[in-house]
Write a structure and sequence with these properties.
Length: 177
């Protein structure tokens, strides 16, 4: 990928950037990661993780709904497009390894995660938990109406910041958070 693969429409009057019918913000990666570290230090990892999961899950559900509606995609196509777009927007390279709507579960590998790259392999702990809500929100979209009431969990079971080749997320209905 030599150039961005996502269209960026800039409103000449407001300067607002849009991609996939949604307003976007372009910011340096170090700002995002430094903010992440500061909030972890101020709040503690688990409270921050819970807030991030709620916010990123809501964001994933919203993005999937907008895309499904505007492009006429079925739920699985929408979820796959979501992770493709996240990859194209620089969060890392998401690879859907397993996605099962009927069983309510999935597994996604992530290489070149912005967090793992910035923290480095010396972190000694998973640092990419921000993406857990991305997974649960996408699964909620995949499940349709059943996703609104299901207990959906996700866990980063391995992280590149711990020395693994890539990060791995496993998610599903009735899976512990």
């Amino acid at each position: 990928m030599a150039a961005p693969e996502v269209p960026i429409d800039v409103d000449p009057e407001t300067g607002i950037w849009r991609t996939d019918d949604l307003p976007m913000v372009y910011l340096p990666r170090h700002f995002l990661v430094n903010n992440h570290r500061a909030v972890e230090a101020a709040m503690g990892i688990e409270p921050y993780r819970a807030i991030l999961r709620q916010a990123t899950e809501a964001s994933a559900v919203h993005w999937c709904a907008v895309q499904a509606r505007s492009l006429g995609l079925d739920p699985e196509q929408t979820v796959r497009r979501y992770f493709q777009r996240l990859s194209q927007r620089g969060w890392g390279r998401f690879e859907v390894e397993h996605l099962d709507a009927a069983g309510g579960q999935g597994r996604i590998a992530l290489s070149a995660s912005v967090f793992a790259l910035e923290y480095g392999t010396g972190a000694g702990r998973p640092v990419c938990y921000m993406f857990e809500g991305f997974m649960t929100g996408a699964l909620r979209h995949l499940l349709g109406d059943a996703g609104a009431t299901a207990t959906v969990g996700c866990e980063e079971t391995q992280c590149a910041a711990q020395g693994h080749e890539h990060c791995l997320f496993e998610f599903g209905v009735d899976r512990p958070a």
